[in-house]
Amino acid sequence: MALALLCHPTGHHNAGWLHPSTQAGASTDIDWYRSTAQLAERGLFDLFFIADTPAARTSNLEAYSRYPLFMNVFEPVTLLSALAGATQHIGLGGTVSTSFTEPYNVARMFASLDHLSRGRAAWNVVTSANDFAARNFGLDKLPPHARRYDRAREFVDLVGKLWDSWEDDAFVRDRTAGLTFDPAKQHVVDHKGEFFTLHGALNIERPPQGHPVIIQAGASDTGKELAAETAEVVFASDATLEAARRFYDDLKGRMPKFGREPEALKVLAGKPVLIADSQGEAEDMYQTLQHLIHPVVGRMRLGMDLETDLSDLPLDEPIPEDRIPRNSNFHKAYFDKIVEMIRSEGLTLRQLYLRYERGNQTLRGTATQVADHLEEWFTAGVADGFMVTPSLMPQGLERFVDGVVPELQRRGLFRTAYTGRTLRENLGLKRPPNRHVAPAPAMAAAK
Ligand SMILES: Cc1cc2nc3c(=O)[nH]c(=O)nc-3n(C[C@H](O)[C@H](O)[C@H](O)COP(=O)(O)O)c2cc1C
C-alpha cells in the first residue's frame, strides 16, 4: 500500500497547537520540518505533503487567533525545495492553486523541484475555496465553482504541454559539436484557450519524472471529473468503508472515458489518526483535545465550510433550516456533508462542530488496531493506500512509524525498503512519454 503524510505542523486536530506535546512555532521552523520529513522517510512513506491557501484571514480574527489556519506558514514549493536537500527518497508534494497562478509559473516551479529532488515532486491541483485568497489577486470573490474547475482543466493541460516542451534528451551538452541542446528537440507550446494564451517553451529541461505527479482532492462531481481525467493520486475523505467504496468505484469508473486505466490513479484514503498504548488512552486523549476546542473556533470552522456566519446561534440548539445557504461555492463536498448532517442527525451546533471532520472521522486506538483498520480497507479494495494525518505532531507520526509501519510490514502489506528512485516508481505509476516522441516500436512489430 502507498502511504502519504499530510503534515499539519501541530497536528490535524483543531486544538493540537494547544497540546504540550506539539511545538507552537513549528509552522515556520525549518529544523522542525526537516526532522519531520526525515522521520516520515524513516517510516518509508511515499509522500510528504503540504496543504496551502494563498491568504491570511483578515476578518473574524478573534476566531483565527485561536486556530491559526494558514495564518503563518511557509509557501509550499519553497519549503519543499529546502526539504529536497534534507531527504533522499520520500516524495515531496505541495498545493498550488490554479485560480491564482499562471501555468508557466507552476510548470517551472514543479519542474525545478523535480530536478532539485531528483524525481520526487508532486503538485496538488486545487481551485481554492475562500474569498480571502481571491482578494489577494484582484478579485472580490472566488469565481463560481464550475468556472474554477474549467480554468483548472485548461491549466493542468498546459502545464503538461510545457513539461513536454523539451524532449528528455534535448540537452546534449556536446562540447565536440559545440551544441548545448538539439534544436529539433524543443517543442514550442502555442496555445490560445478560454483562460490562457501562451507561446513558448519552459526554460528548464524535462523533469526527471517526465511529469511531476499530479494530485487532486476534489470531491464534488466536477472535482471527480477533473481527477478522473488528469490526477495520478487522489486524496479521498470518507469515514466508512461503504462510502469509501462508492467514491473509489465512482472515480475509477470515470477514467475509461478519458482513455485511462484505473491503475494510473492511486486513491489514498485520508486517515486522521490518534495512536496510544490502549484504546482507552487514545479515546481519553481525543476527548481532552475535543474539550480544548474553543466555541468560537468550533463555530468558525463549521461556518467556513457551511459558507455562513454561525456566530449568533445558540450552541446547544440545532442549526435552523433557514440558516443553510441555498448554494455553495467553496468546497462543495464539505458543504453537502454538513447539510446532510444537519438534516439527518438532529445535532446541536456544538455537537455538530465537535463531530464534523470534513466527512472523515479520527481513527483512535493502538498501533495494531490502526494497522487492522488499514488492512481491512486495503484488502477490501476501497483504497490504494492512505493519507495519514496524525492528530498531534510529531508524536502521532512517531507512533505511526514505530508502531503501525512495522505491523504492516510484518503482514506483508508495506515495503521494507524504498525500491524506486522516483516518487512515480515508488507509487507504481508509469513515467509519461513525451507527447512529441513516437513510442518505440513494440517487440512484435520489430520482428
Ligand atoms: C487531504 C486533502 C488535502 C487538501 N488540501 C487542500 C489544500 O491544500 N488547499 C485547498 O484549497 N484545498 C485542499 N483540499 C480540498 C480539496 O481540494 C477540495 O476543495 C475539496 O476536497 C472539496 O472538493 P470540491 O470543491 O470538488 O467539492 C484538500 C482536501 C483533502 C481531502
UniProtKB/TrEMBL annotation:
Any Pfam family the entry gives: Bac_luciferase
CDD domains membership: Nitrilotriacetate_monoxgenase
Domain of life: Bacteria
Region (Disordered): 427-447
Key word Nucleus present: no
Sequence ranges of Low complexity compositional bias: 438-447
UniProt keywords, alphabetically: Flavoprotein, FMN, Monooxygenase, Oxidoreductase
Gene3D superfamilies noted in UniProt: Luciferase-like domain
UniProt domain Luciferase-like: residue ranges: 22-382
Binding site for FMN: D52, T95, H145, Y149, S220
GO-annotated molecular function: monooxygenase activity; oxidoreductase activity, acting on paired donors, with incorporation or reduction of molecular oxygen
Family named by the database record: Belongs to the NtaA/SnaA/DszA monooxygenase family.
NCBIfam families according to UniProt: FMN_nitrolo
Protein name, entry field: LLM class flavin-dependent oxidoreductase
Organism of origin: Roseomonas indoligenes
